[in-house]
Fold this protein.
Amino acid sequence: MFGAMQDTAARMPMIAGNWKMNKTTVEAVTLSQQISFESDKAWEAVEVVICPPFTDLKSVFNVLTFDHSSIKLGAQDVYWEPDGAYTGAISVSMLKELTCEYCIVGHSERREYFGETDETVNKKVKALLAQRLHPIMCCGEDLDVRDAGDTLAFIGEQVRLGWKGVGEEDIAKSVIAYEPIWAIGTGRAATPEQAQEACAHIRGVVADFAGADAASKMRILYGGSMNTGNAELFLPQPDVDGGLIGGASLDAKAFSTLVEMALKAK
Ligand code: PGA
């Protein structure tokens, strides 16, 4: 299998917290302070990213800057146009000014509730990369697709369309999160074998269109009910480079434990 042959040591593990539509500004300050308090120097060996709602970015930025924290900031979405009459939208420059280095795109909740398509995902990926922000592009199948045995073909297509027209160097610096929809927020995580199979497949697909070098550098995360009770099974998988964490990222102790587990796993 393609992925298993890659040099995993070259890829820094990543633990990214997706806070979704949770935490007011006051609550976000408290949670980011708690996470920062739990962190220590060793965390520099893992890329730790927190992705709060837009309205919390500035206050979380202030907390992390005040603490000289190595924790990085990410957003949960972005619009591809640079500026203009797009009521409610947030541009890449706006995120960049708040020192966001990462941005989630194509989360299944955005695809389901906000009409995100592979085409809009691709536009967002390109807009982010044009200003050197790293996309964390989500892909994943629902239960019908899995039960029909079409999972690998389905996520392969999402990945191909999402990265269409993107150069190899940009792909190497980017992140994909494999998040089976049936596992998100349900407490029913994929098995480690399912996660490894999907992540290895994604790496193989990326190798097909961007070359083996870019594919071996790109980080691929597992997401979907990853928590402190199951992460030790996912994190050592050869093609799983970390986790995109929803529910468990809202608890500072749980999130910190996941970072510690990622440190030990690789
Ligand atoms: P979950 O969410 O960890 O709560 O399942 C993951 C995600 O949607 O990114």
In short: The radius of gyration is 17 Å. The mean pLDDT is 95. Residues 18, 179, 184-185, 223-226, 244-248 surround 2-phosphoglycolic acid (CB under 6 Å).
